[in-house]
Amino acid sequence: MLGLAKGLKYTLKNLTREKVTYDYPNKPLPLPDRFRGIQKFYPEKCIVCNQCAQICPTDCINLTGKKHPDPAKKGKIIDTYDINFEICILCDLCTEVCPTEAIIMTNNFELAEYSRDMLFKNLEWLDENDENIRQVNKA
Amino acid sequence: MIRTEEMILNVGPQHPSTHGVFRLVVKIDGEVITEAKPVIGYLHRGTEKLAEDLQYTQIIPYTDRMDYLSSMTNNYVICHAVETMMGIEVPERADFLRVIAMELNRVASHLVAWGTYILDLGATSPFIYAFRDREMIINMLNELSGARLTFNYMRVGGVKWDAPEGWIEKVRDFVPYMREQLQGYHNLVSGNEIFLDRVKGIGTYTREDAINYSLSGPNLRCTGVKWDLRKNEPYSIYNRFDFDVPVAESGDAFARYHLRLSEIEESLKILEQAVEQFPAEGQILAKVPKIIKAPKGEAYVRIESPRGEIGCYIASDGKKEPYRLKFRRPSFYNLQILPKLLKGENIANMIAILGAIDIVLGEVDG
């Protein structure tokens, strides 16, 4: 019986403790800066080096480039950029290899959609995803 | 005269007490189990085969998803294997960060094991207490790595991020807090007479059985075998810390339960010393080539994960992908003794025995 009483004492002591739960989704969840959420993409920074698509462990990034409209300038600019969030595991490797920080993580993580097709996010969508962007990107 | 009939009962794969998608087909005679057949593979993703097409850095996020309760040790074992093959010396600061992260993760993992085991036996509140304290660890690891479970934190040659400002102090403050909570856990459950009656003397096996079934971790140490790779084959910087390897003699479910709580205590000891000795500055990543190519040959390394001995075998033909990769996943091996333990047991003991083995299905199925 002593063991039971001891256990009950612990429970009673915890009755008056402060709550540790969050009022999510009514209030936003506090997340650290490093949190890996849905990516934000800067089309103007991208140099179409293809490194993000190559390092992606699940092959979820598809991109195409086109010639620079200004004939005086060399190199390519981005034409289409799609991430398939059905298979993206938000592992952060794409942002790690990007030499110009054209793709970076944000703190947004809510991805629920009504249809699978909606999980294909294109360049415009990723460009507009510009809230809670990660401040420090490289260690 | 009561006539009994043999019946086949299917438990799982969608059963909360199987901790994932584990199926158990039991043949019962009345209330006594005459045969138990585990069916696994519902969570099989073919990590080892997938890895053959992936660069070494790309494999790390896949290892997160094997034992998803202690991703840090999984991260470490693959990095450690590649580092061994390439002969890379890891900077001291990175080693400390790795050890702190791994030990925090070990505490978190044992907290889940503790909480869910009691939950399986029918008590709800200890589970909530365990998750309350685990949440603090998860938040700390989130600050460090940017994810709550799938950390993807370690890299070949070091770690991805340095500790954020004030993080080490947070870990330092956490240790005494957790010690106090641990005492509370013992008060709450370990002395409870109902619980003791329930778990003492069930699922017992001998030292020989444990070794023959190649069990490891708490499942081996509960039979009195003092075997912990952190002590017996020190890797990383574990030889710098002073800690004990708790063992029990009885080999029953209660011994395993008690060992896990004792191991939390030992992990806290390591954390305390690691935080104290933490170097003020230094590199967090060794000089490694941008594209990592393990030299031709093979290597096998093993470390102590919360569930036992996790090993990684790499056969390389000098390319940037491994030729063959094999993980020795402790949960898979630990599970193999289950049919033997269940035979002749009462059906009411089934979940209590399964829970005490503490499997993670992501690891069983690989």
Could you explain the architecture of this structure?
Chain A: Keywords: 4Fe-4S, Iron, Iron-sulfur, Metal-binding, Translocase. Chain A: Its cofactor is [4Fe-4S] cluster. Chain A: InterPro entries: 4Fe4S_Fe-S-bd, 4Fe4S_Fe_S_CS, NADH_quinone_OxRdtase_chainI. The complex is a heterodimer of chains A (139) and B (366). Chain A starts with a helix and ends in an 11-residue tail after the last helix. Chain A contains four helices and five strands. With 139 residues, chain A is α+β, with helices and mostly antiparallel strands. Helix content of chain A is 22%, strand content 17%. Chain A has helices at residues 2-15, 51-55, 93-97, 123-128; strands at 39-41, 61-67, 76-84, 103-105, 120-121. In chain A, 22% of the residues are buried. Helices cover 48% and strands 14% of the residues of chain B. Chain B has helices at 47-51, 56-64, 71-86, 92-120, 125-145, 167-190, 193-199, 207-212, 218-221, 229-232, 253-277, 330-335, 338-342, 350-357, 361-365; strands spanning 6-11, 14-15, 20-21, 23-29, 32-39, 154-155, 158-159, 297-305, 308-316, 324-328. In chain B, the strands form four sheets. In chain B, strands 1-4-5 form a three-stranded antiparallel β-sheet. A three-stranded antiparallel β-sheet of chain B has the order 8-9-10. In chain B, α4 (92-120) runs antiparallel to α11 (253-277) and α4 packs antiparallel against α14. Chain B starts with 5 loop residues before the first strand and ends with a helix. Classes of the chains: A alpha+beta (139), B alpha+beta (366). The interface between A and B is medium-sized, with 27 and 36 residues.
Question: What are the SSEs and their pairings?
Answer:
The complex is a heterodimer of chains A (139) and B (366).
Chain A: H1 2-15, E1 39-41, H2 51-55, E2 61-67, E3 76-84, H3 93-97, E4 103-105, E5 120-121, H4 123-128
Antiparallel strand pairs in A: 1-4, 2-3, 3-5
Chain B: E1 6-11, E2 14-15, E3 20-21, E4 23-29, E5 32-39, H1 47-51, H2 56-64, H3 71-86, H4 92-120, H5 125-145, E6 154-155, E7 158-159, H6 167-190, H7 193-199, H8 207-212, H9 218-221, H10 229-232, H11 253-277, E8 297-305, E9 308-316, E10 324-328, H12 330-335, H13 338-342, H14 350-357, H15 361-365
Antiparallel strand pairs in B: 1-4, 2-3, 4-5, 6-7, 8-9, 9-10
Helix pairs in contact in B: 2-3, 3-4, 4-5, 4-11, 4-14, 5-6, 6-11, 11-14
Subunit structure (chain B): NDH-1 is composed of 14 different subunits. Subunits NuoB, C, D, E, F, and G constitute the peripheral sector of the complex.
Domain NADH-quinone oxidoreductase subunit D (chain B): 120-291, 292-365
Subcellular location (chain B): Cell membrane
